[in-house]
Specification:
It contains 13 helices and 13 strands. The chain is α/β, with parallel strands linked by helices. Strands 3, 4, 5, 6, 7, 8, 9, 10 and 11 form a nine-stranded parallel sheet that branches. The longest helix has 18 residues. It is elongated, with a radius of gyration of 31 Å. It starts with 13 loop residues before the first strand and ends in a 24-residue tail after the last helix.
Length: about 350
Amino acid sequence: MRRCRGRASMGETFDIAGRKIGEAAPGYLIAEVAQAHDGSLGTAHAFIDAAAKAGADAIKFQTHLAEAESTRDEPFRVPFSRQDSSRYEYWQRTSFSAEHWAGLAAHAGECGLAFLSSPFSIEAVELLRGLNVPAWKVASGEMGSGSLLAAMCADRKPVLLSTGMSSFAEIDTAVAVIRDAGAPLAVMQCASLYPTPLEAVGLNVLDDYRRRYGCPVGLSDHSGSVYPALAALAQGAHIIEVHLTLSRDMFGPDVPVSLTVDELAAVAASRDAFHTMASHPVDKDAAADALSEMRTMFGRSLAPRTDLPAGTVIDADMLTVKKPATGIPADALATIVGRQLVHSVSADRLLMWEDIDVPA
């Protein structure tokens, strides 16, 4: 089995548009639009606004150039289109011009989002490079496209590698190519099932990737559920990519695999909450000391079961423990058994040291 060359340490980190990716950083949340805009530039811009409002870190599209990528023999993955006779025509109809892509990238920047797009041809790489994308996302089906992978690695920007269709041996080969090119790397667990059933998500693979490649790891999810993203974040995934839909009633093959805007917002809120908890470790002894007043309030002291007059010789059966912990501690019972009360004590009060004849 081939192993990747130049393996990084477990603490490897890198930046995407100034945002740290890796250990001790919040999970990086990518809202994947893909072709959910169905060729509408206005809808594509609406996705950017929605992703920013929900709290995503990046918006990601797919850049398909029919002439460079496809032929009229390419089948539809899902036969959904009522207007395109071939997938080639679908790519043509839903593609944008270089000027339109530039406008989308600028809009994302204005909203505080990193602009990403998966290229599916070398021509698409060059188009996106002209927009100065801050990182490259390799789609699962493109891992074996050697020239395409090499083109993305050429500028040594971070490469996010989806692995949904590949074996470990194939991933090892791609990781070696990326590392040899000197590009920062993140490896993304992905199940190329649309939608992905929960039993096929494969969160266990995240730890395999950590050990095998020593780089940031993530989940590219197609379940249409918030649960995989939340579970991956709880396991310390560095990157989460989820598909986004503006409505469950939208048209297109990706709607069943997508989260709504509200669901994306819930994942973003969880990302922030998990990071807050993870970045504030608790010193248990110090926390207990800080709660000394609370411990006194909730603790217990010795108290009589019934009213006891002065002169009573204390027997263990006469006593119980009650709140608060401001009287004689419960663990002092053996010390006071056999002693004599110098004051009467009622059953609704605690027993105090001054109530007992204690030798000087």
